Amino acid sequence: MRYKKADLVLYFNYPRWICYWRAFKRLFVKHNALDDRATGCKETIRFSLLRYMWTFQKRVHRQIFKLQQEYPLVRFIEIKGDSNLRNLER
Predict the structure, then answer these.
(1) Could you tell me if 46 and 24 are in contact, meaning their C-beta atoms sit under 8 angstroms apart?
(2) Within 10 A of 38 (CB to CB), how many other CB atoms are there?
(3) What share of the chain is helix, strand, coil (3-state, %, to 5)?
(4) Sequential DSSP letters for 37-80
């Protein structure tokens, strides 16, 4: 529903290893600017999250392709890493 109303879609498709690295880094390295947890809620990583991250690309690939075909006028940008993101900022 949102895709068809969008002017621009940004698809963050980082490699799995980066996603895993950053999830574990967040667990051990506290960053005050990223304090988005509820009061008293500890940062944790559950197996269900790791499984979700591992299977994400396989689950959404067909859906994204279908949406791109169905709405070709929506600008679609796939960001595969930090260098893509930096280039987008310029």
Answers:
(1) no
(2) 5
(3) 60, 10, 30
(4) SPTTPPP---HHHHHHHHHHHHHHHHHHHHHHHH-TTSEEEEE-
Give dist(CA 79, CA 88) in Å, integer. 9
Per-residue pLDDT reduced to its tens digit, 52-70: 999 999 999 999 999 999 9
Token output for 44:
């944790």
**CA dist., res. 20 & res. 24, Å (int):** 6
- Smallest CA-to-CA distance from 50 within 86, 82, 24, 77 is with 24
Residue 15 CB neighbours (<10 A): 11
- DSSP label of 15: -
Q: Is the pLDDT of residue 18 over 80?
A: yes
Residue 82 has pLDDT above 70, yes or no: yes
Q: Which two tokens stand for residue 85?
A: 């993101």
Helices (H) and strands (E) in the chain, counts: 4, 2
Q: Give me Rg for the CA atoms of the chain.
A: 16
